[in-house]
Amino acid sequence: MKKILVLIFIGLLTTSMLAQDYKFGKVSKAELEEKVYPLDSSANAVVLYKSRRTSFNYLQGEGFQQKTEIHERIKIYNKEGYKWATKLIKYYSPDSGEKENVSKLIAKTYVLENGKIKEYKIQKNQIFTEKKNKYWAQKKITMPNLSDGCIIEWKYDINSPYRGISKVELQYAIPIKKVVCRISIPEYFKYNVKHLGYLEINKKDSYQNDEITLVHKVRTGQVGYNHTSRENNSTETVRLINEVSEIDMENVPAILEEDYVDNINNYKTAIHYELASVKFPNDKLKSYSTSWEAVAKTLYKESDFGGEIEKRNYFKNDLEDLVKGETDETKKALLIFEFVKQKVKWNNYFGLTTDEGVKQAYKKGTGNIADINLMLTAMLQEAGLNAYPVVSSTRNHGIPIFPTLSGLNYVLASAKINGEVVLFDASEKNSKPNILPQRVINWNGLLVGAKGNFDQVSLLNTQKAGVNSTISAKLDADGEINGMCRTKYTNYYEMLYRDVYGSLNEEDLLFKLEEANDNIEIEKIKVQNKKEIYKPLSEMFSFTSEDLVTTSNNKIFVKPMLFNCITENKFKLKSRDYPVDFTTKSSKRYSTSITIPEGYEVESLPENIGIGLPENYGVYKFQVVKVGNKINTISDLSINTVIYPAKYYQELKEFYKLIVKKNAEQVVLKKV
User: Fold this and answer.
1) Is 86 a domain residue?
2) Nearest Cα residue to 471 out of 485, 455, 454
3) Domain range enclosing 444
């Protein structure tokens, strides 16, 4: 019996020693001494513990108030992890109306000094309050006394008079060792709940009894002449049930971001709540959940949206002069589109509704995204086109999870021409019909039609973007190569070129192009139609280089594509759970013809290959051949989808691995 008791005691002691203490300030020496995260040695930091508790408390005279308590503890391994030591706490703080607030904010940095734990508490003058816009504010803290291996910790409450529950984040760009969450909701409030991400969420739902005390004022005694009355408080206990969701997860892996993703936050494991309805005892049900139809009708009736489209007098005379005599709808739309681009410049502000209104924007020559594209919509309608606004969300704003106005922040114009919906964005000087800037290429938009009718419109690029480049070069026996490069760009790549290079002078353009092309020396350059966006864009330059060629033992080594090579595989993750977003379908064709020097012959050429992706998502062909004294090479890459599914990620990774390998192979010439 004694042996059993001893074993039990040892077991309990061991469990106690291994158990992590998550109370604020209880940081262990072992945690501070840890040099690397055992489950992910590449992690620059790790969340040791995250706790979130959201509940609703009843306050007399104010109703239910929401409180969210946050506690986070983060281990920082190296300087690359220091960025996690800046915390932004966003909260709703409108210029007028009820506001949220942040309270009980405390934060500390822990370090080892002479083998002992030293803590540094953040001071009040190190906590900054920033007003982001007329609706939102944030607290900003940057933790003090950082060093490699330190631990930072903070806790705070967000108090809100509102019932909207903020997103429950369960995955970061760094690993999370342990995350716990408790959401307690009174039976009067009903929410639509949606899980995002690719990890299984360990969530348990239960119901718990609760009660609130209501205080009523009651007048007692006789009322009237020579009579007195008294006011007493009467209390009433109301019993209710809370729906409780509890989450407990351990060893949550980091979601790693690599190239070709629209917004990584769309794919992190999280839970979204949308308030569906509220029903108090003896009250009618009040519904809050909505549909895209309801969103469209609301916008249509909004004076700063639908009302602005109805305003026409301010541009009528200009519009009549602009389209006078023009009957072709496409030409008429282009005239108006370019007129608005020139007339009103974008002030870099998004928004579903106008700022000062379309009339003021027209007068001042500047406005937000709604000012510009609602104005464009109105002018297209006035000119007789079937035109309506399209609302959407930018990539940075994310994808709307539920039908809601708050999930949208951008406005486009559309017109139905020859039976097809054509999209316009007059905020972007180099955009063309159906060629949109990347910020708004974000799945689907909502076309707000007459009287609030609606339709879903794809915002993905349907027109294939193209690069077609031809190099004609001559190689000499000393390893110097001279040549001419001619390149044509189409559709999205055409817009991108003008955005990057369009405003540069010749000197700066030469520098940028030399830098982008293996530091060749460019002597002369000519760009046709750099600013004339409806004419074909082409670039031509002469170049020379000694760095593209290697000579050794009477042999010359040169890559047949010269500087038009794909040299890096952007797809490096072991696995990827979120889709690859190429922004546009594309065709990149590079042709090279190299004249070899006299006295040399070809010893070896790279082999030709042809490879493809599943379901014809992409094709690559590489062909090299000797014709007389020339080596002619064609590299042809075609991507036939905008969104590439994650299930074929390994195939994509191998596809680009082979392309990079093939582009690195060299032609070998030997002296005769």
Assistant:
1) yes
2) 485
3) 292-458
Beta strands in 426-536 (DSSP E): 444-448, 454-458, 465-475, 481-490, 521-528
CATH assignment of the domain containing 532: 2.60.120.1130
Same domain? For 398 and 317 the reply is yes
Q: Are 169 and 273 in contact (CB under 8 A)?
A: no
Phi and psi angles of residue 507, each rounded to the nearest 5 degrees, phi first: -65, -45
* The three-state (H, E, C) secondary structure of 504-552, written as one string: CCHHHHHHHHHHHCCCCEEEEEEEECCCCCCCCEEEEEEEEECCCEEEE
206-228 burial, b at 16+ Cβ within 10 Å, e below that, comes to eeeebebeeeeeeeeeeeeeeee
The SS3 call for residue 608 is coil
Per-residue tokens: 474 = 């001559």
CATH number, domain at 408? 3.10.620.30
DSSP assignment letter at 403: S
Report if residue 431 sits inside a domain: yes
Cα–Cα distance, 540 to 374 (Å, whole number): 39
Count CB atoms within 10 A of the CB of residue 522: 17
- Considering the domain architecture, whether residues 446 and 510 belong to the same structural domain is answered as no
If asked whether residues 492 and 395 sit together in one domain, one would say: no
Residue 92 pairs in a beta bridge with 136
Q: Measured on CA atoms in the order 478, 479, 482, 483, is the torsion positive or negative?
A: positive
- How many independent structural domains does the chain possess? 3
Report d(CA 195, CA 595) in Å as an integer. 60
DSSP state at residue 275: E
Residues 425, 510 share a domain: no
Distances (CA, A) of 204 to 49, 245, 246: 19, 6, 5
Query: Hunting for tokens 């002069």 — which residue is that?
Result: 321
Q: What is the CATH number of the domain that holds 104?
A: 2.60.40.3140
Average pLDDT, 10 consecutive residues per value, the chain (672 residues)? 43 44 94 97 98 96 95 98 97 94 98 96 94 91 97 98 97 98 98 95 97 78 56 84 98 97 96 95 91 94 95 97 97 98 96 95 98 98 98 95 92 97 98 97 95 93 95 96 98 97 94 94 95 97 96 96 96 96 98 97 98 98 97 98 98 98 98 94
Question: Which residues, 6 or more positions from 571, have their beta carbon under 8 angstroms from its beta carbon?
Answer: 258, 259, 580, 649, 652, 653, 656
Last-in-domain residue among 424, 442, 458: 458
Residues 6+ apart with CB under 8 A from 291: 403
What is the rounded distance in angstroms from the CA atom of residue 557 to the CA atom of residue 315? 65
**Residues 245 and 319 placed together within one structural domain of the fold:** no
Residue 644 exposure: Cα atoms within 13 Å on the Cβ side: 27
Strands 45-59 and 176-186: parallel
Domain boundary among 426, 458, 490: 458
Q: Please state, in angstroms and rounded to a whole number, the distance separating the CA atoms of residues 353 and 301.
A: 12
The answer to whether position 231 is within a domain reads no
Asked if residue 20 lies in contact with residue 178, where contact means CB atoms within 8 angstroms, the answer is yes
